[in-house]
Amino acid sequence: MIRLRSFLGGEWRDGEGEGAVLEDPATEASVATTSTKGLDLAGALRFAREEGGPTLRAMTLAERGKLLDAMTSALQAKREALIDASIANAGTTRSDAKFDVDGAIGTLSYYAKLGLSLGDRRVRVEGEGEQITRSKRFWGHHVCVPRHGAAVHINAFNFPAWGLAEKAAVALLAGVPVVTKPATSTALTAYVLVETLVDAGVLPKGSLQLVCGGAGDLLDHLGPQDCLAFTGSGDTGAWMRALAPVTQRSVRVNVEADSLNAVVLGPDVRPGSDTWQAFVRDAVREITQKTGQKCTATRRIFVPREQIDAALEAIAEGLSVISFGLPSRDDVRMGPLASAQQLRDVQEGITRLEAAGAKVAFRKDGAPVGVPVGKGYFVPPTLLRLDDPHVGVVHEHEVFGPVSTVMPYGTVDEAVALVAKGEGGLVASVYTDDRDALERLLLGLAPWSGRVLVSSEKVADQAISPGLVLPSCVHGGPGRAGGGEELGGVRGLAFYEQRTAVQGDRALLDRVLG
Length: 514
Ligand code: NAP
Known about the structure:
Layout: E1 2-4, E2 6-8, E3 11-13, E4 20-23, E5 30-34, H1 41-58, H2 61-77, H3 79-90, H4 94-118, E6 124-131, E7 138-146, E8 151-154, H5 162-174, E9 178-181, H6 187-200, E10 208-210, E11 227-231, H7 234-241, H8 244-248, E12 252-256, E13 262-265, H9 274-288, E14 300-304, H10 308-320, H11 340-355, E15 359-363, E16 382-385, H12 393-396, E17 403-409, H13 412-420, E18 425-431, H14 435-445, E19 449-455, E20 474-475, E21 486-487, E22 497-505, H15 506-513
Parallel strand pairs: 1-5, 8-9, 8-11, 9-10, 11-12, 13-14, 13-18, 14-17, 16-17, 18-19
Antiparallel strand pairs: 2-3, 4-5, 6-7, 7-22, 15-16, 20-21
Helix pairs in contact: 2-4, 2-5, 3-4, 3-6, 4-5, 9-10, 13-14
The structure holds NADP nicotinamide-adenine-dinucleotide phosphate.
């Protein structure tokens, strides 16, 4: 069994006691232990602010881009070890492990290139500025400079590699040092990732620290220049927002939380058309990829009332060929849930939906393939049908597993109102070739969604699946989804920067700001 340590103050440090035991969720075998008890987490924040921050701020944006490029290469060289860690501790199939690991590498690489394109400057200036008094000499600019604090990243269990990298890439490019904390239950991949970067010698002192295990008193020491970015449950996010250091010191907070992502099949789409096939293909992928444990996975599927039987049949047919079981086997397409707690939560969530009137339309038969009888945290792919789409619980409770509910709608306006009942999501997707319907859906869904994916006949075989988060487009969503925003290319940097209005002699400012 491996002992995981935290990387703090430039050294690997072990907490007291046995701490938490990390499992292989397919077999329930113990794979690692970790503890943060007794570690100096206030010291880690100081180290970030005093060592990492000044070093990163002395680098130009292009130099920070080179740092991200070096991190990309180091991880690329250890890709197989990262994939193995994910399979062993997160219960992912090789394909799902690649989704996490390659997502991490790809996001770092994207921000590396962005940094290089931003050039040899340390300050980002917005636009050309403007004359702000009657004098042509007196000019106003908005400049974006790195905050002088630490970026504290608290991540969810479902993307131990990508979650770490997508947050770290943006903060480091902005010039802010990172203290990252993966969820304890699946921390092995994050540990291997940071170990790889440390061993490669690419990290400037204090630029990236790892808290491997419980957060201890870390958040008690947040200061006015620090940023806290959290991904996980809405309840934990709400608790973090209300912490005294956060409210009293105006710590910047970004929350990515629960999301009942919705799909609307347009009124024009007929079974067998290219748009229909894309809808079915994506629904099956979103239910089963990473065993449904993606913050962007589809939870609610709205279809025209007259298409509900055909839609259920087509999605069920797609799910019927998904084998689930031991994720290291080549013939297995879906692994277990990530932990015993996840299993309890998902089973309880299905029971709640059934109590509200949902019926199981499809559930894959049989025992998990290749797993000792009774072992592992498995839930088969499950498709539910709910004929009354106005029932509250389906719009309120996120079942974080391989489960989606198909519901009928009458008019496009009703579909919009039903999506909005989720009170804010990370992604909504629309499958239609009807321009009028699309316009009403877009205008209706966008205020409730961080991202809207539109799939139609001409892009049916080129469009991404709704659950794929790309670094160039924003990730986050209003309301229940946490109200946050990450990534989105250069937009993501703003969270880690102070935007300051600078007013003065235009010629002088131009010389200083370049
Ligand atoms: P969680 O319990 O909120 O945990 C998320 C992260 O917060 C973990 O790193 C956890 O650390 C940490 N944490 C929890 N309590 C904390 C505290 N008091 N102080 C400091 N850190 C704390 O969420 P989860 O168990 O990962 O997932 C539960 C649900 O969240 C899912 O079922 C799903 O509904 C939602 N979720 C949403 C997203 C998204 O991106 N929108 C992603 C994943 C999950 P420990 O692991 O050490 O406890």
